[in-house]
Structures are given as structure tokens and as C-alpha cells.
Amino acid sequence: MHCGARMQRAVTTLRSLTVADLPAIHDICRGVYDGVDYLPGRMQAWLDDESVHTIGLEQGGMLLGVHSAHLLENESTALLQGLRVHPSRRRNGIGSVLAAAIMTHVRQYVPTVQRFLTCFESTNTHQVKMRADWNELFSPAYLCTELTNDVLSRPHIHELLSAEPANATADSSLRSILIDDRPDFLPHTGIRATQPFLLTPRGVEKSVQRGDTWLVRGDPHVVSVSSGSFYSIPNNSSVGSYMWSSEIYSDSPREIDWHLIQQLKQGFRHVNGEPFAFECHLPREFAARAQESLRSLCNVDRLKREGFNIIIKEKMVA
User: What is the mean pLDDT of the chain?
Assistant: First the structure.
């Protein structure tokens, strides 16, 4: 699908992107999140996924920015992710153009969409302006640290790999819940007091197949869940070439710690001793505890992006 809407200049166009645009997308992402941007490692899968719509703003053959919409909940919800602007063209309104254009694109091609979901940094001025009329859902914490060769060689890593916190049980067979369409785990309906955001059905199912999703059961409901995904970081030399990205949804501090250990273990297993970046999204009310736990578990002095301020908002289609 292509959206051929033209901007003020004849040489500037909005269009759907393809795998042929990957080199230009990687170039746009250089330097984002200090060189450990998740987007380059995921974009090809997004472009191959029919439930993801990705558009770009192009001028004179140069890709200036990209934005994506992921269709969820039987195409009634569009999750907006991956807004990026080329470093040389930032602060020129391009982000605002793409933020508006992706919603127009979705409305045109997917008339069943009833609401949009998005997350953004509260410090991003143009997005705050664009989304002032959006309803805030919740604000998760985002923790990220770099596990370099000197960290991975320390004895505490072996202790971490064998650690099992008490009073929590796990069951990685989440597939049955997805097949049964259990309402206590459907995206955006919430797990107790939390609001799942990044755990989409497609993403969770893939994570389950890899054995990277963990849950703690109550009776009969799911009490908490965490999921992770491994991807490469193109052209990155500061932390190696790998990232383990995880999400934890729980309202129990004890279970937050338990899930944190499980996701760290999975990251270590996937990279097989190579340096990597570890990131985690989790409920903001447990951020301080999780920060201390992550410092202790990884024996690092500081987290790279500690207490990162993200806001999740929704907007109903008018």
C-alpha cells in the first residue's frame, strides 16, 4: 500500500516503505538511544508483517523520517511506534508531519480502527503539542544498561544464572492462554493494576515459541507476566551487536524481581557470552526498586537510561 500524499514542495512525498529502504532507515537511526536503537533490528520484520504499516517522508530521493502503525485487537486499535527523523533534519517539523500522516494513512486503509495508542518521551516538544488532547493511560519506567566484557567476566554472573527467587512459580506455556483467548491477558485489558502495552498477541506468541515468556499464575488468573526479544544492533561498537529487550507487567515487587532475573538469564543465554545491552519496561511505581535490583544483579555502577520518562496515551477515532 502506498500513500502518495504530497507535502508543500513537489519533491517531498509521503509513501509506504519496503525492505529496499532498510539502509536509509538504518542511517536515520544512527545515534538514537546512544547507538542502541531497537528499530534497525526490528524494521525488516515490521516491513514483512501485513499488520504493520510503515510510512516515510522523502525529499529529493533522501528519506527524512519514518513512522509505523501496528494493528491490534482485530484491527480495532493501531499502536503507533518507531517515529524517527534523520539527524540532519530534526527540529524542522518533520516529526509532527509524520505523526499526523500515519493516523491519516491508517484511517484511509484500515477503517475498522477505533483508537490509536502511542508512547513518547515527555521531553519531546512536538509530540507533546501534537498529543495534548490524547488521554494518558499510564507511564512505565524504562531501564537500560550495558553489559560489557568486563561485567560479563565477573563471578557474580554465574551466581545470577543460578539464582531462583523464593515464593514465585513460573509456567512458560503461555500459548494455551492465547489460544483460549483468556480475557485476563488480552492486550490493553490489564493484568491487575497494570496496563500491558508492548505485549501484543503476535509478539508474545513468538516469544513463547522461543521460551522467552514467563508468567506467574494465581488461581485461576495470570498474576504477572514478562516477555523478551533478542535482536541485533547494526553498526554498533559500544556494547557489541546485541540487545535484549524485555517487558514486565506485575503489581508485586517480589514478582518484579523474579521476572527481572528470568529476563536477564534469557539475555545471557541468547548472546552466548557476547556483550549486549539489556533494557526493560516495567510499572513506574516499581522503578526505584528495579533500578537497585538491576544494579545489584549486574554489578554495574549506573544504568544507561535510568528512569527514562515515557508516557502512554490513547486517542479515539473521531
Answer: 77
